[in-house]
Design a protein that fits this description.
Blueprint lengths: L17 E6 L6 E7 L17 E4 L13 H12 L3 E6 L6
Parallel strand pairs: 3-4
Antiparallel strand pairs: 1-2, 2-4
């Protein structure tokens, strides 16, 4: 099975299945999280079985402007989702110098 994709085949992220916040262990400020379920976790009887793959996709360095809406996160996470992974992204807030 080839894992090479053309630009037209990259999957963009849909609306998240779940949105939540978790407290930072460093300073207890909330971190925004998004979870995306693959099609295999849908309640439809025709859904394929889930292969039990999951990934956390982190965005580029926050102090330089990275966030979970970054196009790189969108392409990487969307492609993993298309491949059947359960995907989570976190929005790490801007750090201090």
């Amino acid at each position: 099975m080839s894992m090479i994709f053309t630009l037209d085949e990259y999957a963009m992220l849909p609306k998240p299945t779940l949105r939540l916040t978790i407290p930072s262990l460093h300073d207890a400020l909330p971190l925004d999280c998004r979870v995306y379920h693959p099609h295999s976790l849908s309640p439809l009887p025709s859904a394929p079985p889930w292969n039990k793959h999951a990934a956390v996709v982190a965005h580029p360095y926050a102090p330089l402007g990275g966030c979970y809406d970054d196009p790189v996160v969108d392409i990487v996470a969307g492609t993993l989702l298309k491949l059947g992974f359960l995907v989570a992204t976190f929005n790490f807030r801007y750090g201090t110098p």
